[in-house]
Amino acid sequence: MGNENSYNPHISVDCVVFGFDGEKLKVLLTERTIEERTELTNNKKMPGSVIFNDEDLDDAASRVLNELTGLKNIYLSQFKSFGNPSRTSNPRDIHWLEKTTRLKIGRIVTVPYVALIKIDRKIVLNAADTSVNWYDVNEIAHMHLAFDHNEIIRNGLEHIRHRLDLEPHLLFELLPRKFTISQLRALYDVVNQTRSDVRNFQKKVAQMTYLVMLEEVEEGVPHRAARLYKYKRKNP
Amino acid sequence: MGNENSYNPHISVDCVVFGFDGEKLKVLLTERTIEERTELTNNKKMPGSVIFNDEDLDDAASRVLNELTGLKNIYLSQFKSFGNPSRTSNPRDIHWLEKTTRLKIGRIVTVPYVALIKIDRKIVLNAADTSVNWYDVNEIAHMHLAFDHNEIIRNGLEHIRHRLDLEPHLLFELLPRKFTISQLRALYDVVNQTRSDVRNFQKKVAQMTYLVMLEEVEEGVPHRAARLYKYKRKNP
DNA sequence: ACAAAAGTGTTTGGAGTACACCCATGA
DNA sequence: TCATGGGTGTACTCCAAACACTTTTGT
């Protein structure tokens, strides 16, 4: 994992980190907290880094997440790369990169990943001059991110929609360990852009052999408490 | 399109070129015809090239196909990149690359594309020391290709299966301009690894508004001639 | 006439969709 | 007691799958 520690300044990885707050799909963006706050607003960006010379792409993506948040064993799925020569043409973006890597930066091809994390996991920031925040995935379309990160996030969202369609159990990467059917349905609907019928969704859930009903209900809600479920990996 | 003409030796594109011969899915591989024929057999590889410094990835993939075959306007779809540091560790692979690019080659991240072409289009070879041939996609698993091309082709096949599932009209990129329902069904089955029922398939076809029946039948077959159809793009 | 593939309908089961009311709980 | 979401069953539609015989044509 990058033990030679020399950067390869031609290739980077970027992570579209998704979380679910019970209502909306969120994306994790980083922001420099020092310097240049007065200039134009494209200083928000996805977590990312150029790779090390002897580092695998998947490892680089894991490293980026771990360095930023302290988390490990995050679900990651790579999607199609972005390498338009003009993607690194904004002087502000380049200046920032050269400052952080201390390398002369020319053209960079970036290899993007989608990451799924449980939004309630506490994030431990390692970098002092950077803050991270969750943003509604729909609001991001109206924000100005660095590089071509708007486009990459759009593609990442499409990518993860397909993945979740093929492997529905990945939904549980986004939910807390114990969850209600309502939460699962809300997530399902926000991912598929649907509005499922409550009764029909119960039927669907009844067929999921990998869901186990717990002898517990949620707490602290001002109405009838819902049953809690958990996800059981492996097969029945 | 690479008008500065200086190679970027850190990034390449490779094309998994699919064709359909009426029965099997085929993949186009290139082979050096001169030198070293006696050594081990990993001299077959996918069409590919390192990119030019000012060249977009999609353009590089188009260029590779055009340089090799003379064809233009080929359907291309990028899928996930391969960048394991050890993928360029075989000395034979490196030697070949350094000879063709005249560059010192270290680690290379490759950005792979799937290409769909009509197998009856005649391929015009530009490179004198290279031959190209179609290979059954299932046989490739048992062949030794250069680099990690076996793995890339496996992934490319999975990728195009998903794409064809989402956009069935891409099937027609693989068929001749006029085709029979049997040909379409054979292609459908080879892609989906199914064995469709003839009658059910006719029903499915009847719902494809973008298929038009021609007043023509196939010729030269030793049995009842099948009706020909063509694909009509755009909407009704 | 025969071999070989083309072409054609009906039935059945499972999955998705639409739809409305009572229940449990906390405030 | 009331407000809030939790939890439950039935009917209809549509699509996929199973299944066998007649037609056309070339040899």
Draw up the topology in text.
2 copies of one chain form a homodimer.
Chain A: E1 7-20, E2 25-32, E3 44-45, E4 48-52, H1 57-69, E5 75-78, H2 91-101, E6 109-116, E7 130-136, H3 137-140, H4 149-166, E8 178-179, H5 181-192, H6 198-206, E9 211-217, E10 227-231
Parallel strand pairs in A: 1-6
Antiparallel strand pairs in A: 1-2, 1-4, 2-3, 2-7, 5-6, 8-10, 9-10
The first copy, chain A, binds a DNA duplex (27 and 27 nucleotides) through helix 6.
Summarize the structure in words.
The structure is a homodimer of 236-residue chains. Chain A has 236 residues and is of the alpha+beta class. Chain A has two domains: 4-166, Nucleoside Triphosphate Pyrophosphohydrolase; 176-231, Arc Repressor Mutant, subunit A (Orthogonal Bundle). The first copy, chain A, contains six helices and ten strands. In chain A, the strands form two sheets. In chain A, strands 1, 2, 3, 4, 5, 6 and 7 form a seven-stranded mixed beta sheet that branches. In chain A, strands 8-10-9 form a three-stranded antiparallel beta sheet. The longest helix of chain A is centred in the last third of the chain and has 18 residues, at 149-166. Chain A is elongated and about 60 Å long. The model of chain A has no long low-confidence stretch (mean pLDDT 91). The interface between A and B is medium-sized, with 23 and 23 residues. The structure holds a DNA duplex (27 and 27 nucleotides).
Briefly characterize the structure.
The structure is a homodimer of 236-residue chains. Chain A is of the alpha+beta class and 236 residues long.
